[in-house]
Design goal:
By secondary structure, the chain is of the alpha+beta class. The protein is built from 4 helices and 14 strands.
């Protein structure tokens, strides 16, 4: 609360100083400094520019459309706006061509665009881990506070959260604490249809037995974030879930031996 009050006071002081500075400049100077915009000649490449001292000089201006088209084609500018195309067709998105991965607990800061699609792809993730009594910490996470997925343990309970762009948070949680020892944890993601943004069916299994399931309201077609990453045994960057927001990166206090990700048909 003290930090918040300090920030508010600092912001107010800054705005007051900026306001005082603005008013300290006589309005007459602004009016006197104003100059009418010069009329551009028909030759856009040599339009005159009026300087403050009243003189003029030639300035560069855009070439006529015909020349622009020639240069645009020569430099592969077209199609203009092509960077928006992946939003309409996610298959055109820059992504890995792999369909299966094995990750150790040494994997940190793996960019989302190079990581497995755990967002809108039929997939199975199998985690081989050694769990202490009352285990806590992240087993793996992809994304951040604005959207992502996280498999973690909290005081012995197993939890999987699908953060749907912070609009919705689907959380699967075990009803009992996971016993200490070696465990096999599975997360299954099955798209409800091939439609863009379709909901995904989620299933959480412990040692081959389903312990929780849920459905997302939708799935982000392109990405969770543009800057967050895939991490094993902790959640670097901004945390995916609010549950361990104040404990991030919430490193796992057990041992993650392997995270096996496979795309399913």
């Amino acid at each position: 609360m003290r930090n918040r009050q300090h920030l508010i006071a600092l912001f107010a002081t800054t705005m007051q100083s900026a306001h005082t500075l603005e008013l300290s400049v006589p309005p007459a100077k602004f009016r006197k400094a104003r100059q009418p915009w010069p009329k551009c000649s028909s030759n856009m490449a040599t339009a005159p520019l009026l300087l403050a001292n009243g003189t003029t000089r030639r300035r560069w201006a855009p070439r006529p459309p015909a020349e622009f088209n020639v240069q645009a084609k020569a430099n592969y500018v077209y199609p203009i706006g092509a960077d928006l195309y992946p939003f309409l067709n996610p298959a055109a998105r820059i992504a890995t061509t792999q369909h299966e991965w094995h990750f150790s607990d040494r994997i940190k800061r793996f960019p989302e665009f190079a990581a497995p699609n755990l967002r809108s792809q039929n997939s199975k993730v199998v985690v081989d881990a050694e769990v202490p009594a009352g285990a806590s910490g992240v087993l793996y996470a992809l994304g951040g506070i604005g959207g992502g997925v996280s498999l973690y343990m909290d005081d012995g309970f197993l939890v999987y959260e699908y953060n749907d762009l912070a609009i919705a948070r689907v959380k699967l949680r075990s009803t009992e604490r996971v016993p200490a020892g070696k465990v096999s944890i599975e997360v299954l993601t099955t798209m409800s249809s091939a439609k863009l943004g379709a909901p995904a069916n989620l299933s959480l299994l412990l040692n081959g037995k389903e312990i929780a399931k849920g459905v997302t309201p939708f799935t982000p077609a392109l990405t969770f974030t543009a800057s967050e990453t895939f991490d094993v045994a902790e959640d670097l960057g901004s945390p995916v879930t609010l549950d361990y927001f104040d404990r991030a990166p919430f490193a796992f206090n057990g041992k993650v031996n392997d995270v096996h990700v496979t795309y399913m048909p």
